[in-house]
Design brief:
Layout lengths: L3 H7 L2 H34 L6 H19 L6 H13 L2
Helix pairs in contact: 2-3
Length: 92
């Protein structure tokens, strides 16, 4: 039985590119939300409204962990897999 990574590496390059594009777009969205949280937390802290700092930090930390989790699903480089496959076939 194959695992997720092996199946993903055997997928057609167009499918791999679609997966990579989707993950990168999600990561860009997460980063944008984190920048907005930082901006709003700093803006409120400068106005001496410190009640938003802790929720903004917690939200940003959660988004950071989600981003790290998404990085697990990025496909391997196509050339790396092809080279590994050629070496396996050469010794058979």
């Amino acid at each position: 039985m194959s695992d997720f990574r092996e199946t993903q590496n055997q997928a057609h390059p167009n499918k791999t590119n679609t997966i990579m594009l989707g993950i990168i777009m999600l990561l860009i969205g997460i980063l944008s939300i984190q920048i907005w949280l930082l901006y709003s937390a700093l803006n409120n802290a400068l106005d001496e409204h410190r009640d938003i700092a802790i929720p903004a930090f917690i939200g940003s930390a959660i988004l950071f962990l989600v981003g790290l989790w998404l990085l697990k699903y990025l496909p391997d480089a196509r050339g790396k897999f092809d080279l590994k496959e050629r070496n396996e076939n050469k010794y058979k």
